[in-house]
């Protein structure tokens, strides 16, 4: 592990979320950035292609080196995220299983990397199982609690996610821990606390990619509360910190779209997608092209999105949530419901609850939709789209007063939400 220069010790108490005891997350001591060897499923840093080549050379000489096989597998996971090439996932699994065959007893490094791989493939139950195996061997390793927090959050097991992020912050405070704590606060209805902890993460950021990551998510918090000027400032600061950090370009383009400048937004997304053809970015680009009436270009991007999703599925990544949201946004009500139900069968996060509620509404099943819409808002997350969806469901049921209240809530949360371009305004 690389050493980090010491910083002044601080203690920060995050605001409480009563039912889930977020007040138990206490950040004491600050590291400059995450542990360099962390197989972090949230925040990829520098491209590890050179590291991969070095590990491969070592393994040609010492093929029984289980630790290097584990490190190689973790590097493949990172490379897949950075390049958006899921073909690295089978390579990662092969390297990690080779490591575990060589040492399946106390090889917690490979187990943590397997948890990260499972999270990347959206196999969140498997991620929990690998994380718990690693915990029995190395209960003081903060990396495994990051993987567990990610998996529990996606599964909708929020008490377990809170406990995991609290443990991670206790054992290894730093950018990776702080940013997860920030998201925990945001989803439990504490945007001010989320912003404060993100700023602490920024203060502890050590590399340009860490700074860019923190700035981007400060921009996201501003964007989803309607603060477009602050969002644009943070996205630009992210781009300045690390010009290679593509999400900063996406943030700048989103801000332009919500300001009504479709020309600038489309130009920005064209650059984003040419550099990183991630399905989310392609779907957002399609939405903007459609809004601008550029149907031929939108059709070309739809073909790209289909090929990207097939490539993901062929390499073990199944994303019914993204497919459900895209189908709903593009008028495919039947497809939206099919994919949303498939995703709900595997996990019960508030984001999936909202997607299922909206899909049910689009298919005329509003009484059932309202049950899921209430589940989507159960944490108190100030997510304007959730309340906008619930308002429309109330209206369809003839519940006018409830619909008005939810519309007013959505407007207070984010007065710049534009339901005509839902993918651009969707918080995740």
Task: Write a compact overview of the structure shown.
This protein is mostly helical. It contains 22 helices and 2 strands.
Structure explained in plain terms:
The chain crosses the membrane at residues 12-31. This protein has 428 residues and is mainly α. The chain has 2 domains: 11-227, Serine Threonine Protein Phosphatase 5, Tetratricopeptide repeat (Alpha Horseshoe), CATH 1.25.40; 336-428, Tetratricopeptide repeat domain (Serine Threonine Protein Phosphatase 5, Tetratricopeptide repeat), CATH 1.25.40. Helices cover 69% and strands 1% of the residues. It is built from 22 helices and 2 strands. The chain has helices at residues 49-61, 66-83, 88-102, 108-120, 124-137, 142-155, 158-171, 175-187, 191-204, 208-223, 228-241, 246-258, 262-275, 279-291, 295-314, 320-329, 333-344, 350-362, 366-376, 384-396, 400-413, 422-425; strands spanning 11-13, 26-28. A two-stranded antiparallel ribbon has the order 1-2. Residues 1-46 have low confidence and may be disordered.
């Amino acid at each position: 592990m690389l050493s980090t220069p010491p910083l002044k010790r601080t203690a920060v108490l995050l605001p409480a979320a009563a039912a889930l005891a977020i007040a138990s997350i206490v950040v004491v001591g600050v590291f400059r950035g995450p542990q360099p060897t962390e197989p972090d499923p949230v925040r990829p840093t520098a491209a590890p292609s050179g590291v991969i080549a070095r590990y491969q050379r070592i393994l040609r000489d010492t093929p029984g080196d289980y630790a290097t096989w584990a490190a190689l597998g973790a590097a493949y996971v990172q490379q897949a995220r950075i390049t958006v090439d899921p073909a690295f996932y089978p390579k990662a699994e092969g390297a990690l299983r080779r490591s575990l065959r060589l040492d399946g007893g106390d090889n917690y490094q490979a187990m943590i990397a397997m948890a990260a791989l499972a999270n990347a493939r959206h196999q969140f139950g498997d991620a929990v199982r690998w994380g718990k195996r690693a915990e029995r061997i190395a209960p003081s390793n903060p990396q495994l609690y990051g993987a567990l927090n990610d998996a529990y959050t996606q599964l909708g097991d929020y008490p377990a996610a809170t406990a995991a992020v609290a443990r991670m912050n206790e054992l290894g405070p730093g950018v990776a821990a702080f940013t997860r704590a920030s998201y925990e606060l945001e989803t439990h209805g504490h945007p001010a606390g989320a912003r404060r902890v993100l700023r602490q993460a920024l203060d502890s950021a050590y590399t340009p990619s860490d700074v860019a990551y923190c700035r981007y998510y400060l921009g996201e918090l501003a964007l989803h509360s309607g603060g477009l000027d602050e969002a644009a400032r943070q996205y630009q600061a992210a781009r300045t910190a690390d010009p290679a950090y593509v999400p900063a370009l996406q943030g700048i383009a989103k801000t332009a779209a919500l300001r009504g400048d479709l020309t600038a937004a489309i130009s920005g997304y064209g650059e984003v997608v040419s550099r990183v053809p991630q399905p989310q970015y392609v779907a957002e680009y399609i939405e903007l092209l459609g809004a601008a009436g550029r149907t031929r270009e939108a059709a070309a991007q739809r073909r790209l999105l289909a090929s990207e999703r097939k490539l993901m599925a062929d390499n073990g990544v199944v994303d019914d949530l993204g497919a459900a949201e895209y189908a709903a946004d593009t008028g495919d009500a039947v497809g939206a419901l099919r994919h949303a139900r498939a995703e709900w069968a595997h996990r019960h996060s508030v984001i999936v609850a909202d997607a299922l509620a909206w899909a049910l509404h689009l298919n005329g099943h509003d009484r059932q939709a309202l049950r899921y819409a209430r589940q989507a808002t159960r944490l108190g997350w100030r997510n304007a789209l959730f309340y906008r969806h619930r308002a429309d469901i109330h209206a369809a049921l003839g519940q006018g007063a409830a619909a008005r209240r939810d519309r007013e809530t959505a407007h207070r949360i984010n007065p710049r939400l534009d339901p005509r371009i839902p993918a651009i305004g969707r918080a995740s």
